[in-house]
Amino acid sequence: MSEVRVRIAPSPSGNLHIGTARTALFNYLFAKKNNGKFVLRIEDTDAERTSQAYIDNIFDSLKALGLNWDEGPDVGGEYGPYTQSERFDIYPKYAQILLDKGFAYECFCTPEELEAEKAIATQNKKPYVYTKRCEHLTEEEKEKFRKEGRKPAIRFNISKAQRAFHDSSILKFNDMVKGELHVDTDLLGDFVIMKSNGTPTYNFAVVIDDMLMKISHIIRGEDHISNTFKQILIYEALGAEVPEFGHLGMILAPDRSKLSKRHGATAVSEFVEKGYLTEALINFVALLGWSPSDGVEIKTVDEIAKDFRIHDVSSSNSIFEYDKLNWMNSHYIKMLDIEDLKERLKPYLTKYDLSELSDAQYTRMVEVTREPLTILSDITDAVPYFFGEDVEIEPKAQTEVLDTEVAQDVLEEFARQAQGWEFEEENLHHKLEVFRGEYKEKGIKPKVTMWAIRAAVTGRTCGADMTAILAILGKERTLHRVRKAMKPAVKN
RNA sequence: AGCGGUAUCGUCUAGUGGUUAGGACGGGAGAUUCUCAUUCUCCAAACAGGGGUUCAAUUCCCCUUACCGCCGCCA
Q: How do residues A405-434 score in pLDDT, each as one tens digit?
């Protein structure tokens, strides 16, 4: 069996899309599972929409996801270059072969003429197919067009190729995920393979590149199914071996439309900026279409690779639901090593002065605030009360807690007692327990007692473990905040 | 319009010619807790519709419907 070689071929007209990331993942998994090679090719034939920033983003995102490629623009490889714009001299040669073999012909139609043809078709409610008017141009006619300054495009002659290699007009292939797919090639129009400006079209460039790069299996989105038929014919016309194809269902937004900006993030880098872990992202996206044989959903890419079978991938579209991604992300955050988490959280804590905390205090703060985090950026709003002398009191904490008589009583008592406490966690834990106990005997629920302290110290009604908070803040700051919170009531 | 594809709880999915149709997320209820959260327990929730084939169809076939994709000198 010849070597398994797969590829991901993104077009750098935007940041790496989450859908492209999934396609890349499935290719990567397939390569891993079959001891194959995973290659990265940049399809930048459309100079207009290409930018270096996007190329960098694609590299960075793929790397961050752990989808490392064996061959690509940066690492090179036997079949380079891996950037289409650096391969422009290759395509005309193959176009010429097709021309020579009679599987392609020059087309001198102008955009306006084509436009007119299309208009007629739409008027008659007929699907538009190119009329082949340039198929049998004589040398004289071509010469005349050239004199007019017209530059020809090159079209692929579908029916000619189909007739040369198949019995009927029906072309079929066996898709690794969809099963047998077929189409009547008579319904396909002769498509352009080389534009009049001398650059290849997508359908031509992919085939040439995949052929030259010896790609054995092409796994991509099902939006490419109709291209596949055209591409197969090119392979055949060139006398090349046709690779295996596998078409994945698409990822849709919850409203079943294409996942776009208005649904939130679409680029991997946007998810990362928001605080999604790449481990969670990749795991989540793997579950869209694929399911583990042992039912355990949380898995590393390597574990998934071992269990991966392309033929078992679901062939239907799947909807991108944040609920599960969020759950999975929070799960991964919980699993993170504390030192690792401390580092990953730092970008989201820039508005605070971390130097106020010792490493031990920072560690403790992270330990007690990590639990409810869904995405890393949640930390930003979870910790303001750990910093600064004073604290901002939320309206709700003021009106529902601090303004009550009980709370004021608790605070007064707390301030008096805590004066003599040692602000060390174990001790605080014990003291607070006793403190709550005293109030409980007076008929005040522990919850209410603690609420008063929490509201005064953190300005909130909910948050991290109180013992830890007090220990981190220290006696001085705690009492300062408590006294500040009790002032108004004391005056009565 | 044409061509192609898809159809199991709200979502991601498992599964089978005969099953109490399973799991996960989300939802609901309860327990734990100083709050939120976590954790644990329990509950509700699906085979799109109609025809066949068959002793039997969620499973196989056909049709309908719905949804998705493609119809560029974009990729």
A: 899 999 999 999 999 999 999 999 999 999
Of A202, A266, A217, whose CA–CA distance to A22 is shortest?
A266
Integer distance in angstroms from CA A75 to C1' B44?
Answer: 54
Nearest nucleotide, C1' to the C-alpha of A201? B73
Per DSSP, helices labelled H in A370-465 are 378-382, 395-397, 405-418, 425-441, 446-458
Query: Could you report the per-residue pLDDT of A253-297, keeping only the tens digit for each?
Result: 999 988 888 888 999 999 999 999 999 999 999 999 999 999 999
Residue A199 in contact with residue A162, Cβ under 8 Å? no
Alpha-carbon gap, residue A426 to A296, rounded angstroms: 38
Does the CB of A316 sit below 7 A from strand B? yes
A 322-341 residues, CB < 7 A, strand B:
323-324, 326-327, 331, 334
Terminal alpha carbon distance of chain A:
89
Q: Could you identify the residue written with the tokens 């078992």?
A: A312
Q: What is the ipTM of this complex?
A: 0.95
Our answer to whether residue A230 is catalytic in this structure is no
- Chain B: positions less than 7 Å from a protein CB are 1-8, 10-15, 22-26, 34-39, 67-75
Between CA A336 and CA A407 the distance in angstroms is 38
Q: Is the CB of A45 under 7 A from strand B?
A: yes
Return d(Cα A467, Cα A428) in angstroms, integer.
6
Question: What digits encode the pLDDT tens for the residues A128-171?
Answer: 899 999 999 999 999 999 999 999 999 999 999 999 999 999 99
Is the minimum distance from the CB of A288 to strand B below 7 Å? Answer: yes
CA distances from A157 to A185, A194, A252, A408 (A): 11, 13, 35, 87
As a whole number of angstroms, the distance between CA A137 and CA A116 comes to 20
